[in-house]
Description:
Elements (H helix, E strand, L loop, with lengths): L3 E2 L2 E2 L4 H4 L28 H8 L8 H8 L6 H9 L7 H9 L1 H11 L6 H9 L8 E2 L4 E2 L12 E3 L11 E3 L3 E2 L5 E2 L3 E5 L5 E5 L4 E4 L7 E4 L3 E4 L2 E4 L14 E6 L2 E6 L4 E4 L7 E4 L3 E4 L2 E4 L16 E5 L2 E5 L4 E3 L4 E3 L22
Antiparallel strand pairs: 1-2, 3-4, 5-6, 7-8, 9-10, 11-12, 13-14, 15-16, 17-18, 19-20, 21-22, 23-24
Amino acid sequence: MRVDWGSEDLRPQDCVTGRGFCILNFAREPLRAPGSTTLVCAALSTQGMVDTAKKNFGGGNTAWEEKTLSKYEFSEVRLLEIVEGLCEASDFECNQLLEEQEELLEAWWLRLKKKHPDLFEWFCVQTLKACCSPGTYGPDCLACQGGSERPCSGNGHCVGDGTREGDGSCQCHLGYQGPLCTDCMDGYFRSPTSETHSICSACDEACKTCVGPTNRDCGQCEVGWVRQDDACVDVDECAAEPPPCEDTQYCENVNGSFLVAECDPTCVGCTGKGPAQCRECVAGYSKEGGQCEDIDECSLAEKPCLRDNENCYNTPGSFVCVCPDGFEEAEDTCVQTRLAGAEATEASPTQPPSREDL
């Protein structure tokens, strides 16, 4: 049967994209597909039936109405109420398609529902031929690899499943491989769940291949691991000589690999992160309390600033010598340029000058 859609034909993929008016069997929730209209199944799904399940004709005399007009449960009135909630008012394509197929839906509801209780199968698969039943694919709705009941052994996705397209081949889930997704990939092992079924579980991180879950079950060790005492154990690359890092870096071992990072700027060589891991300290720092601390040169007994009237200011790893406010630099002294008691400028001679002044 060919169904017109404006100037286009109803295509097999419309079952998936939402243009194919595929009603999902009274028991499926409404679906949305990206970039498409609503898949028309909202009201003719469980929710649509539930919403009208306890209703009646609403005339006040339900017994007389049902005796005279037939039961509300199977009435055209109930169908109309369900269909009215099928599409959103703003969904033009949905409403247009619903209008085009109204007679088919009405015929199924009033005359064919008992013979064909599965609306999806009758409407989408057999009548419109827009879809296939789950587990089948292609123009002739052939069974997927592994059978329609359990495609791809339950461990993968059948290409074209439920549509008139695809080739029925299997796209296996992570950990599985093979035409029917029954084999385990490297890094996974077979774990039986019953006499007929098994799953592929991940090996221990130390194993490239394995027959069980621990590092003693490895068939082959992963890169960065080595076999020792019948188990795959981590290789400590940082213990190698020479170590795999520069003099200004430190090495940190991790499972199966190692990390390299820069030493603290106060260090000359280090064994780890921070000033407490320095082998030696850079100039201007010394070991205090187990870590490299800045030396306050200005507080030493031997003053580093030698000019008369000169102030010393400590800086990280060093110091600066600056003439105080009201003085200016001469060859070997700071010469006063403002008399004692004169108004001071905003800068205080007891505070370090700004970075720009330094």
